[in-house]
Amino acid sequence: MKYVSTRGGIEPLEFQDAVMMGLADDGGLIVPRDIPNVSDCLDDWANMSYPQLAFEVIRLFATDIPDEDLRDLVDRSYIGVFDSDPEVAPITPVGDRFVMELWHGPTMSFKDVALQLLGNLFEYILAARGGKLNILAATSGDTGSAAICGVRGRKGINIFVMHPSGRVSPIQERQMTSVLDDNVHNIAIDGSFDDCQRIMKTLAGDLEFKRTHSLGAVNSVNWARVLAQMVYYFRGVFELRRLTGCDSIRVSVPTGNFGDILAGWYAMQMGAPISQLVLATNDNDILSRFFNSGGYSLGEVHHTPAPAMDIQVASNFERYLYHKVGEDPDRLRTLMEQFARTGSLEIECDSPGAVDLSIEAGSASTDDILAAIRTCWESNGYVIDPHTACGYSVVGVMAPVGAAGPDDSEPTLCIATAHPAKFPGAIERATGEDLAHHPEIDALGDLPTRCEEIGNDPQAVADFIVRTIS
What we know:
The protein has helices at about 15-20, 40-45, 50-60, 65-80, 110-130, 140-150, 170-175, 195-205, 205-210, 225-245, 260-270, 285-295, 315-325, 330-340, 365-380, 385-400, 425-430, 440, 460-470; strands at about 5, 30, 90-95, 95-100, 135-140, 155-165, 185-190, 215, 250-255, 275-280, 295, 345, 360-365, 410-415, 450-455. The protein contains 19 helices and 15 strands.
């Protein structure tokens, strides 16, 4: 399997080179040159354990890693790491829908599913090639703690995590800043998540700085992140087939940076029997507006109870757009240059009001989010976090779903992205009850923290990185 850039400016890469490059050197995103069709494999995959399934999916894209080594990497990422063992992504019936709980990892976020693997990949590649890696990450909440957990204490790796000061939940902040390992460095940026992401891309786009200081990426600009997330969409199809007898499903995905739902889209292209993806945003609705109109245009960042989705510029959108324009890097580059210059771009819809018939999109207001949390608790005795509530709310408005089964409507799978204990204020605001707890999270308040406050300035961040690694 070879990899290319969405902007066409790099030579084709092997998988390990793509992982280490992170953001493409030409400023684009790295994508596989081909997407394999696995329709003939589905019956064989259906009864596999999660690690077995992950190995089969990932080996199609990581063809430069020997099977024996890859199997070991996958097993170390998923066996004995998640508190839901042997399941990594258990599914729970909740009313007329099903919820895939992706928060059973060490930081209680769906990001653990990809970042446990990515940490092991980095260590494996560095052990073979030598050298060091300095990871620069931007987080709106959960990526930071999951990335830190994936690489803390690992030899030859430093990680620098930027978060928007005061704009992540207090628990998310403490999950990051209470990790005091020598190779972990937290940075609070005076700005928004989009500012953090802009700084990351600016420094990664400075090729001299990137190469001199061995800069790498753990954000979903790194292809390995998207690849690892593709696995649980296949898992969801197989599990719902077992539970309901249905051959295909709908999947509702809350998204801000477009990485999670993009993984589902790739799984669909590979042959996963998913009839439709439901894209759910909060009031930061740039993505839902695009899929309903063809127009992708910046708006003001709104602060919501789902802070990890308080994003305007979705970094993975470029990957989808590349495929949408026929994998034409010249056209893609023109559109992205237009967006950088004007803050908007536009493409034609497949049909009136729909850019892509396989993706239905909607947004959830703050009131919608709180109502979904409250209804889910009062009707089903089940607590969901505010991000999961976006997906739960949007799919409920779009189409009433009956009792799932072979003779009823197609089952809907809602992706649950974080443990509700990470957002106790929103849960109590919605339900009037103090419901959101987890012993590990409750213990965070007593831990010492370390964090560097830096202004909204790429050079200031670059200077901090250089001082630290020197």
